Amino acid sequence: MKCNVEQLWADHKLKLFAFISKRVNDPEQAADIFQDVLLKVYGYCEKKSDVRNIKAWLFQIAQNTIIDSYNKSNRFVALENDQIEGDSIDIDTNASIWIEPLLGFLPNKYAEALTLADLERVPQKVVANILGLSLEATKSRIQRARNLLKVKFNDCGVIETNDNLSFSFTVTKPCCLHLEKKVQ
């Protein structure tokens, strides 16, 4: 079956645009994706013409294009955050100021694994060798330590963030007030 793109587009464009708009909140991004779908349809129809179920094919192209768009935007955000090295260092330093004293509340085996992996940034494979554990056991221990630390953070106070990617920790429990003294 030969692709007649003009006829295809005339028959399906309204439903296709509604499909895209329902899945993408930004109208401009939806319009861009809609245009990308048209370009992909043209590109495919120039090379091949073996489409059997045209409607399903069009909506599959739209779905894949939406996914591609989200993946591109996530990569862009990741690159953008990587470019702000000074801010990342400040965030890490600010977090470690509170993390280090709270590690004292964890059992030593969890505190040691978490310190090596997250604060000293030692690769998990190396942490496994240092602790004499398998890689799987090390990953489990680090994850368990993170969960225990999270519980302790929530027990001792409140973490608040703002739009500038900075955060603060306010101690709310009397049993944790000594943490503020260690940080100051």
What is the strand and helix layout of this fold?
Blueprint: H1 5-23, H2 27-47, H3 54-83, H4 85-103, H5 108-119, H6 124-131, H7 135-156, E1 157-161, E2 167-171, H8 177-183
Antiparallel strand pairs: 1-2
Helix pairs in contact: 1-2, 1-3, 2-3, 5-7, 6-7
Give structural notes.
Helix content is 75%, strand content 5%. By secondary structure, it is mainly α. Helix 1 runs antiparallel to helix 2. The longest helix has 30 residues, at 54-83. It contains eight helices and two strands. A two-stranded antiparallel ribbon has the order 1-2.
What's the short story on this structure?
This protein has helices spanning 5-23, 27-47, 54-83, 85-103, 108-119, 124-131, 135-156, 177-183; strands at 157-161, 167-171. With 184 residues, it is mostly helical.
Report on the biggest sheet: 2 strands, antiparallel
Quote the CATH topology of the largest domain: Arc Repressor Mutant, subunit A
Strand neighbour order, sheet with most strands: 1-2
- Our count of domains comes out at 2
Determine the number of helices (DSSP H or I, runs of at least 4 residues): 8
Q: How are helices and strands ordered from N to C?
A: HHHHHHHEEH
**CA(first)-CA(last) distance:** 74 Å
Which regions are unreliable across 5 or more consecutive residues at pLDDT < 50?
75-93
CATH superfamily label of the largest domain = Winged helix-like DNA-binding domain superfamily/Winged helix DNA-binding domain
Structural class: mainly alpha
Number of strands: 2
State which percent range the strand residues make up: 5-15%
Give me the Rg, rounded. 26 Å
CATH class of the largest domain: Mainly Alpha
Q: Overall 3D geometry?
A: elongated
Roughly what percent helix? over 70%
What is the mean predicted local confidence, pLDDT? 77
CATH arch. level architecture of the largest domain:
Orthogonal Bundle
